[in-house]
Amino acid sequence: MALMAWVVVPLCATPEEGNVAWVKWLIGGLTLGLVWQGLLVAALVWGERGNLRWRTLKDALWLHAPTHPRTGRRGGLLWLVCLPLMAGLWLSGALPEPDHSPWRDFGVFLQSDAGRAFFAGNWIWYGVVAVMLVFNTVLGEELLFRGFLLPRMNHAFGRVDWLVNGVLFALYHLHTPWVIPAAVLDAFWFAGPSKYYRSAWIGIVVHSTASVAVLVLLWPVVWAQRG
């Protein structure tokens, strides 16, 4: 992801093309990086288990409903734990960020006149953003960090495996380094609860609230026709 953001995109997007072209290359490049993460997880599970059947994926990637570690109760009201975690995620997202280029920040771009003009009536790029967000919070980042890595980190890190997982996840954001300080807190919203309930779905559901919010807020902008 860092290679895409800081090397590939600058090589492909020339200054003569303008800032919108830069954002298009950035969205496209990061989407490819996230899709690669999903393919990497599939390859790792295949190498470990020998197949990609749903039953295998559920066991290998903790894709079970949350399970209470003491009572063994699964699903049901346990899903409500996602609500305070969502609130924590949004509170951490409100923390001040270090200064950075607005053309590297998707949220800032969406709020700009150039961003609204670009997405007005632009269903193709809305679809690209949707693919990027699905792989960001479901099939890419969460599946890799909470689905594949977290269940296997206990042997190396013991009881603090969830914290190490969260720190690694924060440092992974070298493509958007201004979010790293707040992303460390994601250990408490994603990794810790996913470990406690032995369910990667916790991290996926909580993390996906941000993706859903972006798609919902972007919809009326795309619906508005240009001119």
Offer a quick outline of the entry.
This protein is mainly α and 227 residues long.
Topology:
Elements (H helix, E strand, L loop, with lengths): L1 H11 L6 H31 L4 H7 L21 H12 L12 H6 L1 H7 L3 H17 L1 H12 L1 H4 L3 H12 L7 H4 L2 H11 L3 H24 L4
Mean residue pLDDT: 87
Radius of gyration: 19 Å
Largest sheet: none
Question: Number of DSSP strands?
Answer: 0
N-to-C CA distance: 35 Å
Number of separate helices: 13
- Strand content range: under 5%
Helix content: 55-70%
Structural class: mainly alpha
Q: What's the overall geometry?
A: globular
What is the helix/strand order?
HHHHHHHHHHHHH
Give start-end ranges of low-pLDDT stretches: none
What does this structure look like?
- Helices cover 70% and strands 0% of the residues.
- The protein has 13 helices and no strands.
- The longest helix has 31 residues, at 19-49.
- The two termini are 35 Å apart.
Describe this protein with a few key phrases:
globular, single chain, mainly alpha, 227 residues
